[in-house]
Amino acid sequence: SINFGTISSTCQLIHKPQFRVSLVRKNGDNTEVVMKRLTAKGQDVCEAECLIHGAMSQSGNRNIIKYITDDDYEGDKIIFVEYANESDLKEHIPFGLSMKTINMYFKDLLTGLKHIHMLGHCHRDIKSENLFISNGVLKIGDFGLAVRFRFGGTESKVRSGYGTKITFAPENFEKERVDGPALDVWSAGIVLFNMLTNKLPWKRAQPTDPDFSEYLANPGWSGPEFKNIEESSCDGPRIMKLIRKILQVDVSKRISVEEILQDEWVTNFKRTYEQKILEEAAELPSKRTRNVRNSHQ
């Protein structure tokens, strides 16, 4: 029994030396939540995570995993957060996502990022494993690497090198401080690419990576997966144009979250030709029935 109330464990999700993550049920109302238990070694980072995640979810933004409470228990730090009943985005991508779902999830991601950036923070670890799906809504979680970049009205650059290398922006490999929100934008672009292709454009955004080296030399370069996106539907060229604006190596030219939210494909999703044909085919029987009735009138 702790501040959250009496709980019973239902399923252990992750078990690592410094922390454990379990799905637990609150006795009394049977509410299911996620409990993260950190040992003493992981508690320094945890304090900052609690403060930032709590601040991010305080307004009730639907695209942020809700932070419930935290407590100390038997020398460990306990955190309770909202349970996403459809797992994380990484689990969904291999099965293939419809263009409509990709558009919806990407819009959810952008809306969540806009909220985080508006509150003066950047996430620094946007990837499919940290994006959770609950009742069809994408929510950003795991704020362990999040950091403040705005103090009052003054914006500062953040330390580089934090995050997951496969979603790193090129500048994040350098030693200099970097633009925090721009890191999140790049990572969001990698997530979009991943949703569309079930692959990544490159292993690392560094000149030593053959695919990225080609892209670096010619931003108009189209590898096989780029071409697949362009040719996948009538929206393909527009989506690829947006991805190139997001995966802009020059940070000063990289599109912002606010600008992405104004993009035509993001705001005015257009059905693919395939979807349109299927919908029209489904309507044919009813049209035939109406025509037969009209001919007998």
From TrEMBL:
Q: Which PROSITE patterns match?
A: PROTEIN_KINASE_DOM
Q: SUPFAM superfamilies, alphabetically?
A: Protein kinase-like (PK-like)
Cite the Protein kinase domain residue spans from the record: 1-266
- UniProt keyword list: ATP-binding, Kinase, Nucleotide-binding, Serine/threonine-protein kinase, Transferase
**Top-rank lineage group of the source organism:** Eukaryota
| Keyword Kinase attached | yes
Q: One Pfam match, by short name?
A: Pkinase
GO cellular component terms listed in the entry, alphabetical order: nucleus
InterPro entries noted in UniProt: Kinase-like_dom_sf, Prot_kinase_dom
Which GO molecular function, any one, fits this protein according to its record?
protein serine/threonine kinase activity
Is Transferase among this UniProt entry's keywords?
yes
UniProt name for this protein? Protein kinase domain-containing protein
| Species annotation | Caenorhabditis remanei (Caenorhabditis vulgaris)
